[in-house]
Amino acid sequence: MQAKTPEQSKTTLTDMVLPGETNPLNNLFGGELLARMDRAASIAARRHSRRIVVTASVNHVAFNRAVPLGSVVTVEAKVSRAFKTSIEVFIDVWIEDRESGNKTKANEGIYTFVAVDETGRPIAVPEVIPETDLEKERFDAALRRKQLSLLLAGKIKPNEATELKALFD
Ligand SMILES: CC(=O)SCCNC(=O)CCNC(=O)[C@H](O)C(C)(C)COP(=O)(O)OP(=O)(O)OC[C@H]1O[C@@H](n2cnc3c(N)ncnc32)[C@H](O)[C@@H]1OP(=O)(O)O
Asked: Do you know which SUPFAM superfamilies this protein is assigned to (predicted)?
């Protein structure tokens, strides 16, 4: 299986915020943004693996800035690291200024997908070769995040989370 770069999975979704998608403060509803992020990230995971992928966990989401009604929102997803059958995807969310066209980072998230066969059984995926400094940074920290997610899900024991333990040694 040939390794791939994060750039090969890059997926960009651009859309507006419409009235039916907002909260009472007229900002984008969190669940709507999560759905957009899930959609972009699953396409990135599919591009990386060329398999059916399912969302296994949402590891981290930070709603740092509200996204007002009418905003043009760009959701950019890229695979940061792949393990045996699981794929971590980073999602960056940008808002575009109407007049200047400049983009400001509004939110980010990290999702984990698992590639599965037609019967839903996990199946092996290609490795990731990070290229840029940011991609290398995200790649290096991915094992720690995987162990944290598995620990919180009760799927590994604390003494198996070696990367997390190393933070405190
Ligand atoms: C519930 C919903 O409808 S959400 C909507 C869409 N999502 C789904 O339908 C997914 C439903 N869930 C599933 O099908 C299964 O739980 C799966 C396929 C995600 C995982 O199945 P499991 O039996 O746990 O498989 P297994 O233990 O072999 O793990 C497979 C991989 O997932 C990883 N994984 C499983 N759970 C998690 C988690 N919570 N966080 C991070 N990684 C995880 C494992 O570490 C393993 O990765 P690796 O092979 O790269 O080392």
From this structure: Thioesterase/thiol ester dehydrase-isomerase
Task: Tell me which of 86, 89, 128 to substitute to probe ligand 1's pocket, judged by most ligand atoms within 8 Å of the beta carbon.
Answer: 86
The Cα–Cα gap between 136 and 134 comes to 5
**Using CA atoms, how far apart are residues 130 and 88, in angstroms rounded to an integer?**
13
Q: How far is CA 123 from CA 78, 94, 129, in A?
A: 20, 33, 19
pLDDT in tens, 123-137: 999 999 999 999 999
Contact between 112 and 56 under an 8 Å Cβ cutoff? The reply is yes
**pTM above 0.90?**
yes
* Cβ pair 79, 16 in contact under 8 A: no
Nearest CA residue ID for atom 6, ligand 1: 55
